[in-house]
């Protein structure tokens, strides 16, 4: 990611000796952005059955009537949503390491992410699997015997097995470990080295990863283990957030200048969405070009399979799409961070609750959204996809938000009960007889 924001003198503070300031509300805008991004993730998944072109490599509970407006929203969110989370995660991981130490932070982060990942893999993924099977049974794609034996025909399950939306937790733990390993070396780097070398290298890594494997963004790489191209692409944004901490530890530059990036970011996002959806529509069967199978693609000599005289599968066309996609993601990420920081100094009650529930919304929404899509397809066949998306998004957000609210109420009751059960400690005043004896001894 290039050095797209100016560096002021205040940006050169070393994290080894950070400038202390009252933090009340200083990052309230980031909390608000994180809350809105969690809702955007649910909205993204709510759009899946109605997107055309659909996301290659992504298996879903049902497919429904496509919508052009929903498709545009889907791909616009897809380009920018994970970079937002990754840059924020990288920035605050670096900030925590500067204050608390690298390995202490890494241990705490892995504990906080590892347990939810383990529990959701054990309990949530089986629920999600049978939710998907319910949709496939309703559509006639599989039979009950296939589900019972977990053996499917025609390769319909080729994209079914993996961590689903939980891949982010797995990758994040790995990134935190890598950051802890290189933290000492990172603190020795000057602002010039970071701004002129490290950040541009992050941009190059993201572009190369996306050029070689467009399915990192324009498809879905489903697996139980990290996928190399996806790991490097996502890691480039996480590293950008960590590196940005070295330049702007209080995000003052982002707050002051980030809004200037909004216009170029929106234009690039529109260009990337238009180009990407066109490319997906003409490139052919995803099973041929995914995982780097370019040699197996035989472009037909037609105008819609060429761009400027070049085959759509050529390195130049793919790299151009990659540059647009990465640049749009970078600009929109820092623009949204800047606008949020500049305009939000204090969270309202609802936004504070939503921000606190964002992690739970992320964890729990997937099977709820998949089940809601099944119900929407068969119970509301004539309803507009836009209305269906709104209903499904509301259900997905409400599921995680309500669980988080119930958990916070329970914690509050336990705290009040514990406080009430604590014995009241009071200062015992001396008795008159004790005072008299003390005075007599003193005399």
TrEMBL record:
Query: What residues form the membrane-spanning segments?
Result: 32-52, 72-94, 115-138, 167-186, 193-211, 231-247, 259-280, 321-342, 354-374, 386-407
Q: Which UniProt keywords apply?
A: Membrane, Transmembrane, Transmembrane helix
Which segments carry the region annotation Disordered? 417-443
A single Gene Ontology MF term assigned here is: acyltransferase activity, transferring groups other than amino-acyl groups
Domain Acyltransferase, by residue range, is 28-404
UniProt xrefs under InterPro entries? Acyl_transf_3_dom, Glucan_succinyl_AcylTrfase
UniProt xrefs under Pfam families: Acyl_transf_3
Protein name listed in UniProt:
Peptidoglycan/LPS O-acetylase OafA/YrhL
């Amino acid at each position: 990611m290039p050095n797209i924001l100016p560096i002021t003198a205040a940006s050169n503070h070393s994290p080894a000796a950070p400038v202390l300031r009252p933090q009340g509300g200083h990052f309230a805008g980031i909390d608000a952005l994180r809350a809105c991004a969690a809702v955007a993730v649910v909205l993204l998944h709510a759009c899946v059955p109605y997107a055309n072109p659909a996301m290659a490599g992504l298996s879903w509970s049902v497919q429904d009537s496509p919508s052009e407006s929903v498709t545009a929203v889907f791909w616009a969110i897809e380009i920018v949503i994970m970079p937002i989370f990754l840059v924020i995660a990288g920035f605050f991981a670096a900030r925590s390491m500067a204050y608390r130490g690298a390995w202490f932070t890494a241990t705490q982060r892995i504990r906080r992410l590892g347990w939810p990942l383990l529990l959701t893999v054990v309990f949530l993924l089986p629920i999600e699997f049978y939710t998907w099977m319910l949709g496939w049974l309703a559509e006639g794609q599989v039979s009950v015997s296939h589900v019972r034996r977990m053996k499917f025909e025609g390769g319909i399950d080729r994209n079914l097995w993996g961590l689903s939306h939980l891949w982010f937790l797995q990758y994040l733990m790995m990134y935190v470990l890598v950051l802890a390993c290189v933290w000492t070396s990172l603190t020795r780097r000057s602002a010039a080295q970071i701004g002129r070398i490290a950040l541009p290298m992050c941009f190059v890594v993201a572009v190369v990863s996306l050029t070689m494997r467009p399915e990192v963004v324009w498809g879905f790489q489903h697996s139980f283990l990290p996928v190399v191209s996806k790991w490097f692409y996502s890691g480039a944004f996480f590293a950008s957030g960590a590196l940005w901490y070295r330049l702007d530890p209080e995000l003052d530059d982002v707050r002051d200048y980030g809004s200037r990036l909004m216009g170029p970011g929106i234009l690039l996002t529109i260009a990337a969405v238009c180009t990407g959806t066109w490319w997906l529509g003409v490139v052919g069967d995803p099973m041929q070009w995914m995982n780097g199978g370019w040699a197996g693609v035989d472009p037909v000599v037609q105008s819609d399979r060429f761009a400027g005289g070049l085959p759509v599968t050529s390195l130049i066309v793919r790299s151009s799409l990659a540059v647009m996609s990465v640049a749009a993601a970078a600009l929109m990420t820092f623009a949204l961070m800047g606008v949020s920081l500049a305009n939000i100094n204090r969270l309202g009650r609802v936004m504070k609750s939503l921000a606190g529930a964002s992690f739970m919304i992320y964890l729990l929404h997937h099977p709820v959204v998949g089940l809601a899509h099944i119900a929407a397809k068969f119970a509301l066949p004539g309803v507009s996809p836009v209305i269906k998306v709104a209903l499904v998004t509301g259900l997905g957000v409400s599921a995680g938000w309500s669980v988080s609210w119930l958990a916070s109420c329970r914690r509050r009751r336990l705290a009040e009960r514990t406080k009430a059960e604590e014995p009241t400690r009071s200062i015992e005043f001396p008795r008159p007889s004790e005072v008299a004896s003390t005075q007599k001894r003193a005399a």
